[in-house]
Putative enoyl-CoA hydratase protein (Rhizobium freirei PRF 81), 308 residues
Amino acid sequence: MTKLVYEDFQPGREFPLGPKHMTAAEIIEFASEFDPQPMHLDEEAGRASILGGLAASGWHTSAVFMRMMCDSYLLATDAQGAPGIDFMEWKKPVLAGDTLSGRSIVVEARAMRSRAGIGIVTFRHEVENQRGELVCLSQNATMIRMRAGAEVSA
Amino acid sequence: MTKLVYEDFQPGREFPLGPKHMTAAEIIEFASEFDPQPMHLDEEAGRASILGGLAASGWHTSAVFMRMMCDSYLLATDAQGAPGIDFMEWKKPVLAGDTLSGRSIVVEARAMRSRAGIGIVTFRHEVENQRGELVCLSQNATMIRMRAGAEVSA
């Protein structure tokens, strides 16, 4: 199978993310292991908090977003990892019963100076709920291999 | 039990994180659900990648870091959530068998203009492996309630 390479990620290209339904059980399971704050573990505690209901940990939303990227394009790409995230904003609570979807948009693509044959693609990632409200906005750079032979002329 | 409040987070104060041992089983379990790229699922694929071994997803490291914060100080704090992360850098691979620890350092604390009685505390978070190598560096702001009555004079 031919994988997507650096040259396939032109600025402006969009890749759809999701949909993914967020269940109360999943929210509680993730929080029990990684973020056991009351509003992520219990409906009543969530309603009493500023989040307004049983709400996913921001890290859960981020992990689900990672999976959506994998399923949309990353597993089909000759990707070499990401050194981090430029920023991540959890704009609105993600509540049990919400369905998330969104898009990754290529904002920049450039050759990596320190490694021949690898490009750096910067994405803006938007994740929304079923009402179209932005719940998670982030940006990051991913290392992606160039088409074989491309490094010769780089 | 008296919880930690905004006034307890003076700039310069440090809170220890970890230790947390990262097992191959945990790395594979997280990756299977959230980041099923080969280097996070399989020892051999990890060795063949630039990560050099079965390596935790950056999001797994981030989620473990969240749990370390909860156990160190966050669950003992009257915290009101975090709007996001300013940046997160995965500096080195986290491999199966590594043990993570580190610290959260208060870099800034200020009153929130839009909400009386809430302060914003900015932390720098450092997570290292058992050799003292920085594997994850991040910064974020957390909303923390002020001592009761403090908002009157704010």
Summary: The radius of gyration of chain A is 18 Å.
